[in-house]
Amino acid sequence: MNKLKSCCKTLSQYYFSAMLWLWGTMQQALADGPDATKIPDFKIPGVDSTTKDPIEIITIVAKSLVTLAAVLLAAGAIFVVVKALISIYNEATSENGRKGWGAFIIALIIGFVVIFFCLWLVKLAVGLF
Predict the structure, then answer these.
(1) What interhelical angle do 101-126 and 54-93 show, nearest 10?
(2) What whole-number distance in Å separates Cα of residue 49 and Cα of residue 56?
(3) The pTM of the whole model exceeds 0.70
(4) For the CA atoms of 27, 30, 36, 39, what is the dihedral angle to 10 degrees?
């Protein structure tokens, strides 16, 4: 219990210092005065900063949603593959298990193919920008 309390206390101290640092940097970046001209102009890649075209904005939102879907698909695929591999490994190492190491090796190969395919889809989705 004491280790848990000390861990929470340490994390809360770091959280406070990190938030204080972030707050200070935000104040510095948004400060008025002679240094306000040094703040860079933030731009979205592939978009003119003066655009008011709704089709272009909808296109960017659609691209970002496709990218998010690809990332979520890859994360889900990795989770399912790892869960299945753990299950098959436990079955292969069990004394009463009927599956052997061959099923584990085949699942491992198929799992890597699925993971690399999903990561390739993420690469394509990020390439939209």
Answers:
(1) 170
(2) 11
(3) no
(4) 110
50: buried, middle or exposed (CB in 10 Å: 19+, 13-18, 0-12)? exposed
Rounded to whole angstroms, the Cα distance separating 23 from 84 reads: 44
Q: What is the rounded average pLDDT for all residues in the chain?
A: 78
- Helix and strand element counts for the chain (H, E): 3, 0
Pair 74, 121: CB distance under 8 Å: yes
CA distance 63 to 59: 6
Distance CA 77, CA 72 (A): 8
Q: What is the pLDDT of residues 1-48, one digit of tens each?
A: 777 777 667 767 777 777 777 677 766 666 655 555 665 666 666 655
